[in-house]
Amino acid sequence: MEKDAGSARLTGRDGTGPATPGAARRRRRWLGGGAALLTLASIGISVSGYLMVDGHRAHQADNRDSTAALAAAKDCVAATQPADITALPASQHKLDDCATGEFGKQAAWYSAILTEAYQAQNVHVALPEMHAGVERTNDDGSIIALVIFRADISQQGVADRENSYRIRVKLVRQNGQFKVAQLDQVSK
Predict the structure, then answer these.
(1) Total number of domains constituting the chain
(2) Over 90: is that where the pLDDT of 12 sits?
(3) Angle 130-133-139 (CA atoms, 0-180°, nearest 5)?
(4) How far is residue 98's CA from residue 94's CA, in Å, rounded to a whole number?
(5) Model confidence over 99-153: pLDDT tens digits?
(6) Angle formed by the axes of helices 88-98 and 21-79, to 10°?
C-alpha cells in the first residue's frame, strides 16, 4: 500500500529554483541588463561597420580621382615635349584639350614658340622616363601633382643632351575630366 507523501515531499528543493522573490527579481534584472548591453553592442558594431564601409568608399573615390589626375598630368606634360616637327600638330591639339585657366593662356603661346624652335633647329625629343605622384588634394577638389621626367634632346649641330625636369601641376576637374590649370617647373 502506498501512503500519501504530501505536497511538501513532491516539490523537493534541489537548489535550482529561486528561494525568495527578491532573487527572482535580481535574476530578471541581470537578464534585462545583459539583453540591453547586447543590444547596445550590436548597434555600436552596426554603426562602426557602416562608417568603415562609407570611409572605404570615399577612399576608393579619392584613389580613382588621383589615378585620373595623374594620367591627365602625364599626358599634358608629355604634350609639352613633342617628339619632332611632325608631332607638333597632335601636341598642340592635346595642349588645347588638356589646358585650362592660367596654363590655358600659356599653352597657346607655348605652341607658337615650339613651332618656331622645332622648325629652326630640327629638334628631336624622346621621353624615356616619366613618373608622377599626388602631392596633395586641396579643399576645392583640385589636385597638386609632381611630374618628374627625363628628356633626351637631339638637334642639328649640337651634341645630344639629356635634361631632367620636375614639374608641379595643378589639376582641376572640368566636365568630368581633369585639366591642367597651372604648370610650374620646380628647382632641384
Answers:
(1) 1
(2) no
(3) 145
(4) 6
(5) 998 998 888 888 788 888 888 888 889 999 999 999 999 999 899 999 999 999 9
(6) 140
* Spatial distance between the Cα atoms of 168 and 170, rounded to a whole number of angstroms: 7
- The distance in angstroms from the start CA to the end CA of the chain is 113
40 assigned to some structural domain: no
Task: Give domain status of residue 52, yes or no.
Answer: yes
Cβ neighbours of residue 84 closer than 8 Å, sequence gap 6 or more: 118, 123, 124, 125
**144 contacts 169 by C-beta, under 8 angstroms:** yes
Q: What percent of the chain has pLDDT over 70?
A: 89
Q: Is residue 86 part of a domain?
A: yes
Q: What is the pLDDT of residue 53?
A: 95
The beta strands (E) that lie in the chain are given as 124-137, 143-155, 158-174, 177-185
Q: Which residues contact 141 (CB under 8 A, 6 or more apart)?
A: 172, 173
pLDDT tens string 139-165: 998 999 999 999 999 988 888 999 999
* pLDDT for 120: 83
CATH number at residue 122: 3.10.450.540
User: How are beta strands 143-155 and 124-137 bridged, if at all?
Assistant: antiparallel
| Closest CA relative to residue 127, chosen from 155, 148, 103 | 148
Q: Are 86 and 125 in contact (CB under 8 A)?
A: no
